[in-house]
Structure prediction request, 311 residues.
Amino acid sequence: MILYLDIIFLENLCMNYIILFATGIITKNKIKKLRIFISSMIGSIYVVISIFSIFQMYTNVFFKILISVLLVHIAYSPKNIKELISKLMVFYLTSFAFGGCAYALLYIIKPQNIFMKNGLYIGTYPLKIALLGGLIGFSLIVNVFKMIKNKMNKKDIYCYIEIEFNNKKACMKSLVDTGNMLKDPISNMPVIVVEKEILNNMIPKEILENIENIICGNNEKFFEIIKNTEIANKFRLIPFSSLGNQHGLILGFKADNVHIEYNDEIKETKKVIVGIYSKKLSKGNTYNALIGLDTIIEEDNKDEYIKCIKS
Prediction:
């Protein structure tokens, strides 16, 4: 068989470029076409060298892994070992997917003169078949990663909460809001924002119906309700800022206990403030509460009464 090294070089240059390009898209790296092109050229040169049996040292497994590391490093310059390993794994996964698609097309077409040389398939198959396989592999793997990511995101952005207060319980579905950094300024406890309708059986009706008046300090009935009760010292006004409301206040209370079910794990905490929200948080009641990610991975806070004394 006559081998045309220029064709082999060009074919592998194109395939390497597609694989490295896909790796960058999947890992969300900034694509630098020149770096990818240089990396692809080095990979193609290695393939051409590997064809000749006189360079046996370049065909062992260790050297192949070393070349892969070099290609990924040149294309994306990882900052540390962890990032390098992550990109290398995606690079191999992408390579296997592309190779599988290309060889599947070759198997269907059944070219007559294909054989293996030093671990490489060589033959007279059309260059367009290899490139077509690479493009199909590119489309498949990028879309599969998007599907997996979307599925994981939908699972990770919701959790289930059970709030205990004054010997009563309320259960709800909550959105895990990474932008929810709201905390009680006195105790520094994180605040879970909950729709007031969910708290109907937990909080006295007179309080829920007069939240705006309470925030403005115009409701004497509120003080009459909580006066001489165990819940008197658990209510507080929490300042917040949001788009269109830079100096807002929300009525909240210190929960007796909160159970959080997230990613098949259950967490229990007493160091949470529940903020009462008068409106709807989502269309169609998809969720009824907002919880910050720091509440789920909350580190142990100091005792709130110590902080009150310091204040």
